Amino acid sequence: MMIYLMCLILFCVGVYCILVKKNLIKIIIGIGIVEYAVNLFFVLVGYRVQGRAPILAQDQVIQNMVDPLPQALVLTAIVIGLAVTALIVAIAMRLYEKYGTFDITKIRKLRG
Amino acid sequence: MKTKEPGMTLIVKTITRLTVGLILLYGIYIVTHGHVSPGGGFAGGVIIALSFIHLMLAFGKDLALKKLSRGAASFFESFGAIMFLTIGLLGFIGGYFFFNFFSKGKPFNLFSAGIIPLCNIAICLKVGAGLFAVFVALILLEIPIRKE
Amino acid sequence: MNLAAFPITHHLLPFFVAIPLGSAFLVSLLGKKLKGFPDTFSNLATFSLFSLSLFSLLLTKRFGTVVYKVGGWIPPIGICMVLDSLTSFMLVTINLVAFLVTIYSIGYMERYTAKWKFYTLFLLMLAGMNGVIVTGDMFNLFVFLEIASISSYALVAFGVEHEELEASFKYMVMGIMASLFILLGIAFLYSLTSTLNMADISRTLARIGNNQTVFFVAALFLMGFGLKAALVPFHAWLPDAHPSAPAPISAMLSGVLIKALGVYALARIFFNVLGMTAISSSILMVLGIISMVLGGLLALGQEDIKRLFAYSSISQIGYVVFAIGMGTPLGILAGLFHLFNHAIFKSLLFLNSGSIEYATGTRDLRKMGGLTSKMPVTGYSSLVGSMSISGIPPLSGFWSKLLIILAAIEAKHFIFASIAVLVSILTLAYYLKVQKLAFFGELKDSLKGIKEVPLTMKLSMIALSIICIFGGLLLIPGVQRNFLNLATEVLINGNNYAQVIFGSIK
């Protein structure tokens, strides 16, 4: 139970960062923290008490493993997170080139 | 007047010359043993990309781009994806999309598990080349300084 | 029933994802060197997808639900691809609009640099959308949703100007948060049912019964997919993102992306996987009504033509979600019919605004006037599109709006039905404003030298307006029984989805 609470605290820290901070790069870091929290939660869903790593070596018998399926899914989710981080950083750099600032209160041409 | 050499100091360059080949070899080991031990295409691809980035950080961009140019990275990326899709389409030999049609062999050997090592190699090409291309594009983006 | 044909034909399901994916990477490989290659190859790819989707209609009418085991693994161990009537209905809608939009982009994208990059991203987005519709597995749905979303983020920022980058950044931050909520929902659902196959989840949830976690999962999915579908209060990215994108991309985003990723996923999950309850039905209806009213009111005061169309999209998606949220057979039929119609006429309107921008260089309504005299094809097709979306008989929009209002009255939601009628009058008001300011009236002096747009752009607009005019024919009893009613039955079936899927595995 305590571990899930830690994931929730991380999630809230990330959401606070996205909502309150004014620098573009800090918003991107906040997105990274939220992704981290969701991936961590997903891996912890697969934990079994007294389980060992789900790796099959040559002469071991299958018993008492943690659930390997969330680990495979989280690997995919981490790759997706990498792709969006790369894209959003590239857009942030282009925004700096056009507007000259990283401050989101000054990047407000679209209104209404 | 000493001209500024690209890259980092002499100590870094010497160590890089020793280790970058080992890093590349380690990455290839993780990719090809993906069906026997943890790792596989994505992790191995990232390590291979890291070896090229290591080269760029230590020696400057000209030498690294001579080893793997931007056009070559773009080519390998698309080629890896097409190879993956072709393996999937070849599965129709066995009857289904992505069917495992090679011989399975004995478990825990290097040549076993059907098409999985080939898929790992395709993913490694795509991820490695893609990650290096992203790094090059972000680092070498030239932003003109705006005069307010 | 000729069973000998069955094993060959049901192999076409993976091709809906494999064809756009392969074409995207082939265009990326060869597009820079060969000059005419991206245009011809992408149009060939979308045309083949469109014909395959029409063929899938015949397939599902003949064989019922087709389940394809990817890699030969039996579900729920393996991933399965499901083709039932709702799937083929959505596939026809998406691939038809995508085909006409690629024809349009041959002419329009000449103004931008690096056309092959555009086609690569476009085909990747199409592969993602087709994958969301065809798959039968929850995490596979998430992966394809991400493929389509990431390509759309990059496409909104395609011509790198000030407004496009700002709009794309806002869209990205909100879209990433929505995807993370969906992933969190899948994590909770997995912890409850320990399976990822949609039919298996449905079966397990029916066995477990009522559980607090299911409410939380439903709320998370509503937040996540509701943002992709631009329901109020998750709509704030749409008025910035859709106008700033290039015109073919605005047509694809507003016409099909918010429907395939948002409305279809909501309908599939709430009806088939989680099971429709009275609470979720009323929440969907209330959100739909609020979207209708807010989108309509905010569209009245806009000066930018594409921004007005974007707010109108929010309003019409409100209609669709309201109708589907009712849960009655007539309501779902009306909602799906309005979804198809809106895909056709909204993409037509956005393509028109693209032609106006191509010819005059402006998007501001106050600077336009009297364009019909110089650009007849754009003018008349825009007239057809605007009359259809406002609900003027005998065009297609009238029939779908009438069905929605009738369904609301039949289910005894009289207040909601009257709100729907009032919003329809509001829609007529602002589309008349667009027509008057842009197309009729005096031709301004600054616009004297404009010409009509190139041939490929004209072809798409004419084709879409023809479908608008004859769209009402889908309600003829013979056609309706085969096309729309079958799609409705899939959603009405609800939790029987699991039995249908497991019974069709061969």
Entry summary:
Chain A is mostly helical. Chain A has helices at residues 2-20, 24-45, 69-99. By secondary structure, chain B is mainly α.
Question: How would you describe this structure to a colleague?
Answer:
Helix content of chain A is 64%, strand content 0%. Chain A contains three helices and no strands. Chain A has helices at residues 2-20, 24-45, 69-99. In chain A, helix 1 runs antiparallel to helix 2 and helix 2 (24-45) packs antiparallel against helix 3. Chain B has one domain. Chain B is 64% helix and 0% strand. Chain B has five helices and no strands. Chain B has helices at residues 10-32, 41-59, 61-67, 70-90, 116-139. Chain C has 506 residues and is an all-alpha fold. Chain C is 75% helix and 2% strand. Chain C has 20 helices and two strands. A two-stranded antiparallel sheet of chain C has the order 1-2. The mean pLDDT of chain C is 86. Chains in contact: A-B, A-C, B-C. The A-C interface holds A 18, 24, 27, 31, 34-35, 38, 41-42, 45, 67, 69-70, 73, 76-77, 80, 83-84, 87-88, 91-92, 94-95, 98-99, 107-110, 112 and C 139, 143, 146, 150, 153-154, 157, 160-163, 165-169, 172-173, 176-177, 179-180, 183-184, 187, 190-191, 194, 196, 239-240, 244, 301-302, 307.
Which terms would index this structure?
heterotrimer, B: 148 residues, mainly alpha, 5 helices, C: 506 residues, two-stranded antiparallel sheet, 20 helices, 2 strands, globular
Task: Give me the secondary-structure topology.
The complex is a heterotrimer of chains A (112), B (148) and C (506).
Chain A: H1 2-20, H2 24-45, H3 69-99
Helix pairs in contact in A: 1-2, 2-3
Chain B: H1 10-32, H2 41-59, H3 61-67, H4 70-90, H5 116-139
Helix pairs in contact in B: 1-2, 2-3, 2-5, 4-5
Chain C: H1 6-9, H2 15-30, H3 37-63, E1 66-69, E2 80-83, H4 85-108, H5 115-134, H6 138-156, H7 162-193, H8 198-208, H9 212-228, H10 238-244, H11 247-273, H12 278-300, H13 305-326, H14 329-360, H15 376-390, H16 396-410, H17 414-439, H18 455-470, H19 477-493, H20 497-503
Antiparallel strand pairs in C: 1-2
Helix pairs in contact in C: 2-3, 2-5, 3-4, 3-5, 4-5, 4-11, 4-14, 4-18, 4-19, 5-6, 5-11, 6-7, 6-11, 7-9, 7-10, 8-20, 9-11, 10-11, 10-13, 11-13, 11-14, 11-19, 12-13, 12-17, 13-14, 13-17, 14-15, 14-16, 14-18, 14-19, 15-17, 15-18, 16-17
